[in-house]
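Q: Please design a sequence for this.
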């Protein structure tokens, strides 16, 4: 299947020397199971995850010299997570270019946080292979620096489980309770968490680990309560 990736390259601000790398970044495993393609984006995703972690660590170290090590870790976590990656992917309209199997497409795969975040990492891996580390660094800097700047103002809230615990205590509400389920094989699990207060669902979230999913659910609950 031929897909036009020119508009995606324009939004990325980078033209691939080898466009096949970008196409491969769009290949979800559900597509590979139903097509003649033999490689999904999972290897590129693995590489992109490592590249993203390195670049963000470099950016926060250089740009936030007034922050202690713990704060730098929190800043990195604020963007190196499935939710933030999916948001950037949505801004780039990545979903419309994804190659998905019929079932996954019908199930709304183009909007799923896990699929979008994986594809975003795959794109970063593809850029790294195609253009090298400086190009990848510049792209990640453009895509994520504003989010890092915004996160500085909310460093005290990046641990949303603790923030939610304190919030409900000040409002004489019961302590939050979390339930977590997972899908996918052991080497590639996605976790889904629900935060309940007084048995009422207040927030839901997902992530690559149980902890990150609970944090996402806690953030959703925190925002829901403070929005009232």
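A: Design:
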């Amino acid at each position: 299947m031929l897909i036009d990736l020119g508009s995606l390259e324009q939004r990325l601000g980078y033209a691939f020397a080898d466009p096949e790398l970008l196409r491969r970044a769009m290949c979800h495993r559900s597509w590979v199971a139903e097509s003649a393609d033999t490689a999904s984006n999972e290897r590129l995703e693995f590489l992109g995850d490592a590249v993203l972690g390195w670049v963000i660590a470099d950016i926060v170290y250089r740009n936030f010299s007034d922050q202690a090590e713990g704060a730098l870790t929190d800043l990195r976590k604020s963007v190196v997570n499935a939710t933030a990656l999916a948001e950037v992917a949505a801004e780039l309209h990545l979903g419309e270019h994804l190659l998905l199997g019929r079932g996954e497409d019908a199930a709304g795969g183009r909007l799923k946080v896990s699929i979008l975040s994986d594809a975003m990492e795959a794109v970063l891996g593809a850029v790294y292979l195609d253009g090298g580390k400086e190009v990848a660094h510049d792209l990640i800097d453009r895509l994520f620096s504003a989010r890092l700047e915004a996160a500085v103002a909310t460093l005290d809230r990046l641990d949303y489980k603790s923030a939610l615990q304190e919030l409900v205590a000040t409002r004489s509400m019961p302590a939050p309770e979390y339930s977590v389920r997972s899908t996918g094989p052991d080497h590639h699990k996605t976790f889904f968490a629900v935060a309940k207060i007084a048995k009422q669902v207040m927030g839901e979230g997902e992530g690559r680990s149980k902890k990150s999913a609970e944090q996402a659910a806690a953030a959703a609950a925190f925002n829901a309560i403070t929005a009232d």
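Q: Thanks. Anything notable?
A: The mean pLDDT is 90. The chain has two domains: 6-155, 160-227.
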